[in-house]
Amino acid sequence: VRSDTFVGALYKLLKAENIADRAESPYPQLSAEAIVAANPEVVVLVDDETPASVGARPGWDTIAAVQARRICELDDDQLSRPGPHIIDGLESLADCLYPDE
Amino acid sequence: MANPVGQSGNQAVGQRRLPRAWWRPAGGSSFRQVGAFGIAAVALLVCATAAMLIGPAGINADDVIRALAKHLVGADVYVAPQVDAIVWKIRLPRVLLAGLAGATLAFSGAAYQGVFRNPLADPYLLGVASGAGLAGALAIVLDAPLTLGDFSLLPLVSFAGAMGSVLLAYGIARVGGQTPNTTLILAGVALSSLSVSAISYLLILDNQNVSSVLAWLLGSFNGTTWRDLSYVLPYALPAGAVIFMHGRLLNVMQLDDHEATLLGVDVQRTKTVILIAASLATAAAVSVVGVVGFVGLLAPHIVRLLIGPDYRCLLPVVTLTGAALLILADLGSRTLVSPGELPVGVVTSFVGAPFFLFLLRRQRRAYF
Lengths: 101, 368
Known about the structure:
The complex is a heterodimer of chains A (101) and B (368). Chain A has 101 residues and is mostly helical. Chain A has helices spanning 6-13, 32-38, 51-55, 64-67, 76-79, 86-97; strands at 43-45, 71-73. Chain A has six helices and two strands; from the N terminus they run ααβααβαα. A two-stranded parallel ribbon of chain A has the order 1-2. Chain B is built from 15 helices and two strands. Classes of the chains: A mainly alpha (101), B mainly alpha (368).
């Protein structure tokens, strides 16, 4: 998702650089090669995918996040719904992005 | 035109001549046909090259060539691992699958048009593609065991859906031994909407997100792997071989059933064999790519405009053209909204649907 959306705003709040920001639609489906080329440092999953399943996608073994095992599986009920749980979501997202702080 | 046997006064002389054996070069306009084959081959090469060089990752041509050289001829060159992965694991299988699916849908479309003697027949419009999609979606949702080693059974399941749709559409449209164009298309379109809504229902029920539903309904090559190619090829190759070998018979079938029978063709058997092959090929493509519309309509018609209706030459040229068209459409689907993706069916329908309307309006059948 792009950072100017409700869901994307959390990432902006945490000063994360979002690879979807260059897309034309707010909730884009990105090209596989665009993702590999963007080489994200962290991948956040909020659906049925698992770190193993995305790591097995063709070419993803070259992505920094996959190599460093920085793939977080977060709860989409906390991250994608406008409600009080969003704070929990924000906290777990912050833990995912900045594990050392 | 060399036409030693056919003497009917029909406008479409090409259809009325007794065809020679399929392996012999065609007489008369053979120069034009060889030329068209050459043009189609060059077009395919150009489209495939462009598709390899252009992409959202913005890799320069130099690196693409180096990565390909490394894998294809084992050249000892350095390529950044990321570039290597994009070219070899993402882009190349994607271009090859688009070509394979385009070729498959195109020769299937030509075969349907020949069997039904209906210029508007197409795997998409007949509901074959969506029928195949429905069966495939059902199998996926029900978690049916779909692999036998490295061999995917999903195309076979889709094939059942494809055959079901085509027989149903044909059965519904048949009125007193005749199958009028409009009825066949209407039946196909109605069945197609039915299948499409059933697919949406199944996938949404299965808690898939909307974009994966769209990818299935409109077709997508995003995330293509080498394995996908190995799923389609074992079905598409034999089906294509069968259809190619029936080029000569397809020519005879352009007469009505009675005349074809008098010329010694077992019409019912030929129809059945070609329909099974075309549906199997369509199903194999759809089960991996999703429902992509209009390629099976566009390619055969463009080629007929250029070289006429002789199926022996038509089929190979149509196959190349279909491959080129879908590779080009897929290039559009990953670059038009880059780094986002459009489903490839959006691109093909955008070009194909107006073309279909144009054909519907024209209907002079001068070149069919």
